[in-house]
Amino acid sequence: MIPPVLPTYARAPLTFVRGEGAWLVEADGRRFLDLGAGIAVNALGHAHPALVAALTEQAGRLWHVSNLYRIAEQEQLAEKLVAATFADTVFFTNSGTEAAELAIKMVRKHWSAKGDPGRTEIVAFEGSFHGRSTGAIAAAGAEKLVKGFGPLMPGFVHLPWGDHGALKAAVSDRTAAVLIEPIQGEGGIRALPDACLKGLRALCDETGALLVLDEVQCGMGRTGRLFAHDWAGVRPDIVMVAKGIGGGFPLGAVLATEAAASGMTVGTHGSTYGGNPLACAVGLKVMELVADEDFLAEVRRKAGLMRQRLEGLVAAHPGVFEAVRGQGLMLGLKCARPNADVVAAGHAEGVLTVPGGDNVIRLLPPLTLTEAEIAEGIVRLDRAAARLEAA
User: Which of 5, 18, 223, 351 could be joined to 346 by an S-S link, Cβ 3.0–4.6 Å?
Assistant: First the structure.
């Protein structure tokens, strides 16, 4: 018999009832160090006092009015994002998947509005993940995502990750956009080198294609800059944002230049809940804290420390771990054992990680993680590895 909750997840036998910073408390009282942060969502940890206050205060004033009216909190958050980034305009969504849908629509509408409606081809990459909607899975193209869901949205070209020759052959003056994650999350924490991102920008400039970046997982301070593309110094045309921007409250956004968004006029897109006062009140507080340069510098410092400790962990357990990869506090451990076994061993030792592609476990802790918690996380991962070695 099918359970009341649709069984599309193989859920771990854990039920958390309370969160405190980088810690989660299970119903039976056990405390777990959360190095997954709800898959990079809880950027400021669990129950951050400033976010709780922002949400509580807004909840006492106004929850929802719809986008039929101006929403002050939405306009304020959009202004902050525009001031801090390449973008000229922002549309708010409830999730990264919704951001992906709008990004795809925006690309196609851009070319239609320019009088070239046949220019619809979007280049995407093996190992990518852009969400679970039909458009998003068509963009990613992986069999595990698309099998059984056809016919798929047409117009996507899928290239191997890191194949520069295939990229140059595929992108032409008929390409509408190139869609890529600066760091693949689900794909196994695979970072695109800065030089490659700069090369992509140059290739798009040469052909007129739009450069669309999916920063749903790697954005909002995760790499030690507000956005991962800031490291390469490139100016994208469209960026998809979600996860960390709401600090745990459902919120996403599409950031765009005026030129890229020029086709999106009244009636071309909408959202009942997107950019509601509750979400944007929280997002405003997240931006205030995460976009601060001192905060980002501290993320970079702690990231360096964590990576150093993880390198030592790999050296100590070569039969369990092979390598460290990633940037900032978006790190991965390439595993020599099945990554599901490593995640489960972590559960037994009170540490939470997230499985990813290429047999990697993802470490996506709150950006507020302390040095003491980094040390404790390494201790618990060390015990998890020893547990596997002894099995």
Answer: 351
Query: How is the chain split into domains, by residue range?
Result: 16-41+293-390, 50-290
Give the CA dihedral 82, 87, 91, 92, nearest 10 degrees. Answer: -60
Residue type, position 26, single letter: E
124: phi then psi, degrees, rounded to nearest 5: -135, 180
Q: Which phi and psi (to 5°) does residue 216 adopt?
A: -60, -40
Task: Reply yes or no on whether 243 is catalytic.
Answer: yes
pLDDT at 162: 87
User: Residue 225 pLDDT > 90, yes or no?
Assistant: yes
pTM of this structure: 0.97
> How buried is 9 (Cβ within 10 angstroms: 0-12 exposed, 13-18 middle, 19+ buried)?
exposed
Give the dihedral sign, CA 132/138/142/145.
positive
Scan for tokens 């069999």, then name that residue.
143
State the CB neighbour count (10 A cutoff) for residue 277. Answer: 18
According to the CATH classification, is domain 16-41+293-390 in 2.40.160.20?
A: no
CATH code of the domain occupying 50-290: 3.40.640.10
Catalytic, out of 91, 129, 227, 321: 129
- Distance separating the N- and C-terminal Cα atoms of the chain: 35
Instruction: Label the pairing between strands 210-214 and 183-184.
Output: unpaired
Selecting among 34, 214, 230, 237, the annotated active-site residue is: 214
Query: Which residue stretches of 9-95 are H helix?
Result: 37-40, 49-59, 72-84
* Euclidean distance between CA atoms 33 and 51, whole angstroms: 20
Q: Where are the beta strands (DSSP E) in 272-346?
A: 321-327, 330-335
Residue 34 annotated as catalytic: no
Q: Per-residue pLDDT tens for 272-313?
A: 999 999 999 999 999 999 999 999 999 999 999 999 999 999
What pLDDT is stored for residue 306 in this prediction? 98
Cα 229 to Cα 148, 237, 326: the distances in Å are: 34, 12, 14
Sign, CA dihedral 228-232-233-237, equals negative
Nearest residue to 285 via CA among 39, 63, 73, 131: 73
Is residue 147 annotated as a catalytic residue, yes or no? no
Cis peptide before 151 (omega within 30 of 0): yes
Which residue in the list 34, 109, 243, 285 is annotated as catalytic? Answer: 243
